[in-house]
Specification:
- With 268 residues, the chain is α+β, with helices and mostly antiparallel strands.
- 19% of the residues lie in helices and 38% in strands.
- It is built from 6 helices and 17 strands.
- The protein has a 10-stranded antiparallel sheet with strand order 8-4-1-2-3-17-16-15-9-13, sandwiched between helices. A 4-stranded antiparallel sheet has the order 12-11-10-14.
């Protein structure tokens, strides 16, 4: 967790270090926001202050949020006690969850973002920007069909993007025409990448709550998914980013490339 004057960021690193997520909450999203640096000085916009960083057990944080439910929750951190406290006050009831914080300075992986550096090192091989609603049914069908699939394949050509999975009960292929996207920048030749089913679907879990979703793939096959979510105030935007490493690099698919040039009607 990284806190400064502008926002709060939650960074999540997968155990295999092949997946990474970042959730950004601007300070304006909160009903009340007060943050202090490690010297107990209040953060000031534009001031040269180092962000406050700490580590939490991800499973414990999720469990606390589940206990508190879908309601207004207060989150606080006292450096003296090194305790992160989530509290819910209701008429006649008070619920609190305490989590021990760890010094993020000892967690080099929080700051050494090799996956993000590799992703940003070169221009993306392809970029797809769409209204999130246009992708929800696609991902839902994949989720239902890819029960035992080891991977989900994304391939992009000049006319369409194809999402496919092969499970124990059969194979599903879903074509999304370029007209369904707000922005469609394909690679020079149709290319495909494979991703672990669980990692790919996890990166898409914010679709029901997002307004726009951008999918980018780096030349190395790193999948970058960014969701734009409107805050309750409607003024600030919440960003949720996922990065997933490809299982393997693939050569351009000549058969699919020929199919891409055909007049095959799109499935979406």
């Amino acid at each position: 967790v990284v806190v400064d004057a502008a926002d709060v960021e939650f960074h999540v690193l997968g155990r295999s270090k092949t997946t990474r997520a970042r959730l950004t909450f601007p300070s304006g999203c909160f009903q009340a926001y007060e943050a202090r640096d490690e010297h107990d000085n209040e953060f000031v916009d534009g001031a040269d202050q180092e962000a406050l960083a700490l580590s939490l057990d991800g499973g414990g944080l999720v469990d606390c949020l589940r206990i508190l439910g879908d309601c207004d929750v207060s989150l606080s951190y006292a450096q003296r006690d090194e305790i992160v406290k989530l509290t819910l006050e209701e008429p006649g009831a008070f619920t609190a969850c305490d989590l021990c914080a760890l010094d993020a300075g000892d967690d080099e992986d929080l700051f050494q973002d090799d996956l993000r550096d590799a992703f940003a090192a070169a221009a993306p091989a392809c970029t797809l920007l769409a209204a999130s609603a246009a992708l929800r049914d696609v991902v839902q069908d994949l989720d239902e069909s890819a029960v035992a699939a080891q991977y989900i394949r994304l391939s992009v050509g000049r006319q369409r993007a194809r999402f496919s999975a092969r499970g124990s009960t059969g194979t599903v292929e879903i074509d999304v025409p370029r007209d369904a996207f707000v922005l469609f920048e394909p690679p020079p030749r149709r290319t495909g990448w494979k991703y672990r089913t669980g990692a790919f679907l996890h990166a898409m879990r914010a679709l029901p709550h997002a307004r726009e979703t951008c999918v980018r793939v780096s030349p190395q096959g790193i999948l970058g998914v960014q969701h734009l979510v409107d805050s309750d105030s409607g003024e600030d935007k919440i960003f949720l980013e996922h990065m997933v490493c490809a299982l393997e690099e693939e050569e351009p698919d000549l058969e699919e490339e020929a199919d891409d040039e055909s007049e095959r009607p799109p499935s979406v």
